[in-house]
Amino acid sequence: MMVAEELSERIDKRGHRFLVGEVNQDFCASLKEMYDGFSRTDLNQGLPPPDEKIRSGWIQSLLKSANNFLAWNHGKVIGHSSLIAEMQKQDAEFIIFVSEPYRSRGIGTELTLLAVDKAKELGLNKIWLTVESFNFRAIGLYQKVGFRLSGAAERERVMVLKL
Predict the structure, then answer these.
(1) Which three-class secondary structure state does DSSP give residue 25?
(2) What is the separation, in whole angstroms, between the first and last Cα of the chain?
């Protein structure tokens, strides 16, 4: 699915270069390394799974069943997003994670835009996600890209982007 020519170079908000691109199952080890570096405080809605064996299975499942996008800095994975499409419904769930030192630098925006472009390419009608109600940084990112809050909730919110 991905060769080196398909990587795109981007510049983050601090002026540093990073690469983004869509990936296939061959990137499991690189992705696992990123998620293994997450602390318990990095978990959102229980993800990535804190148990190493469960986390490995979760990563493999995403790489097999979803469209996946990675961001790299100096050969190290620093961000990951997945578009989990349900073609019969013409929609997809979206998830995204960026390593702590690279947050608030525009990397999440780039990973989100790649997923949105892929959803359009697949002919989907909407993308949805759940986000913790107090995760204002993530909500701001999603709203900037065009997601809108849908319904009320105490702990989690659903956001939808109509394509």
Answers:
(1) helix
(2) 24
152/157 Cα distance (integer angstroms): 7
Q: What is the dihedral of CA 122, 127, 130, 133, to 10 degrees?
A: 150
Instruction: Round to whole Å and give the CA distance between 114 and 42.
Output: 23
The secondary element (H helix, E strand) that includes residue 95 is strand 91-98
Q: What is the pLDDT of residues 69-128, one digit of tens each?
A: 999 999 899 999 999 999 999 999 999 999 999 999 999 999 999 999 999 999 999 999
CB 80 within 8 A of CB 36: no
Number of helical H runs and strand E runs in the chain: 4, 8
Task: Look up tokens 């995760």; give the residue.
Answer: 135
Place of tokens 């961001």: 71
Beta strand 126-132 with 91-98 is parallel
Question: Which CATH topology does 9-162 take?
Answer: Aminopeptidase (3.40.630)
User: pTM here?
Assistant: 0.90
Residues in the chain: 163
